[in-house]
Amino acid sequence: MVFLCGLLMQAAIVNAAVSGYEWSDYQTSGTHTEDGKWTTTTEWTDAATPPNLVTGLLWRGTWTWPSDILQHFIVEVFTDNTNDTGDIVRVCYDCAANGGTAPQTDDTMIELVGNRISGLSLYHGNGTGWAKYTGWTLGTDAAAGASISSSPLNSNPHLIVELMVDKNTQADVSQGGYTPGLYVSAYDASNAGAGVKSWPPAPASSANVPNSWGTEAGTTENIPEGFAVGTIVVMSSIAVVVGFLLRKRQKTENRSSEMGSLVYPR
Question: In sequence order, what are the residues at sequence separation of 6 or more whose Cβ sits closer than 8 angstroms to the Cβ of residue 6?
Answer without folding.
Answer: none
